[in-house]
Automatic annotation (TrEMBL):
It comes from the Eukaryota. Its EC number is 2.3.2.27. Keywords: Metal-binding, Transferase, Ubl conjugation pathway, Zinc, Zinc-finger. It comes from Periplaneta americana (American cockroach). This is E3 ubiquitin-protein ligase. The keyword DNA repair does not apply. E3 ubiquitin-protein ligase that mediates ubiquitination and subsequent proteasomal degradation of target proteins. E3 ubiquitin ligases accept ubiquitin from an E2 ubiquitin-conjugating enzyme in the form of a thioester and then directly transfers the ubiquitin to targeted substrates. Belongs to the SINA (Seven in absentia) family. The RING-type zinc finger domain is essential for ubiquitin ligase activity. The SBD domain (substrate-binding domain) mediates the interaction with substrate proteins. It is related to the TRAF family.
């Protein structure tokens, strides 16, 4: 695997390439009878060594495993633009959260809508503006208001918000017992804690309000784990009825801020 970045362990990384999948081998690394190495992902797929066809042993290459733990690895997405390098213990965590990893469109990934687009996060804004309806996204500065007309149980809404030079995904969901609202930060997992959202509903012509404030959620969090009381904005359906307007619309205000 050719790496255009400046990685000091080029020679060692070449030795750590699996001869079958060409990805970097990480412990456990096993040997064949002739001393060829096989990575842990490829071993279950093989009956014989991919290099010499000899028998694969239940013997680990402990010396190479020790060197693997000391090596500095480039991200697997370096060819897409990621310049990060990591030691063994941090490599897989970064891989799972790298912004250069291809991902599904937010509407498909979070809301289960039938969009077939897949790409990196930095290209998603252009995709959403070009391929989705105007009502699916908005650019805002400060707070923004939303009116939901259909509040029947199992009804859901979603919208992409561009603000603070970042991208967010807002999910509104009505369930039999409660209404929920959650905001995802669409970027590196560790940056989600840098933003929070404030959700507010008000009774018309009164000073009565319900306010909730939460740190934005990251894209690795499952929707079903977030849409629960205490994990995002949550209002009982009886209260939703009290806060509806005369036109039976449920109005709310959201403000996303950087911490």
């Amino acid at each position: 695997m050719d790496n255009p970045g400046k990685v000091k362990d080029q020679g060692l990384l070449k030795e750590l390439e699996c001869p079958l999948c060409l990805n970097y081998m990480k412990p456990p690394i096993v040997l064949c009878e002739n001393g060829h190495n096989i990575c842990k992902e490829c071993k279950p797929k093989l009956s014989n060594c991919a290099t010499c066809r000899s028998k694969i042993l239940q013997v680990r290459n402990l010396s190479l495993e020790s060197l693997a733990r000391q090596a500095v690895y480039p991200c697997m997405n370096f060819y897409l633009g990621c310049k990060e390098v990591f030691h063994f213990d941090d490599f897989e965590e970064h891989r799972d959260n790298c912004v250069y990893t291809a991902t599904k469109c937010l509407f498909s990934r979070i809301s289960n809508r039938g969009c077939k687009w897949s790409g990196i996060i930095s290209d998603m804004k252009e995709h959403i503006k070009d391929d989705h309806m105007a009502s699916d996204y908005r650019e805002v500065s400060g707070s923004f208001k939303t009116e939901l007309s259909n509040t029947e149980p199992t009804r859901g809404y979603s919208q992409v918000i561009f603000t603070l030079n970042e991208m967010f995904f807002v999910l509104w969901r009505f369930k039999p017992d409660n209404f929920y609202c959650a905001v995802y930060y669409c970027g590196p997992k560790e940056k989600a804690n840098n933003f929070k959202y404030k959700f507010t509903v008000s009774k018309k012509n009164t000073k009565e309000k319900l306010c909730f404030s939460f740190v934005t959620h990251n894209l690795t969090e499952n929707v079903n784990d977030i849409l629960k009381p205490g994990f995002c904005a949550c209002i009982h359906t009886a209260a939703v009825k009290l806060f509806k307007s005369e036109g039976e619309k449920f109005a709310s205000e959201i403000k996303i801020v950087k911490l």
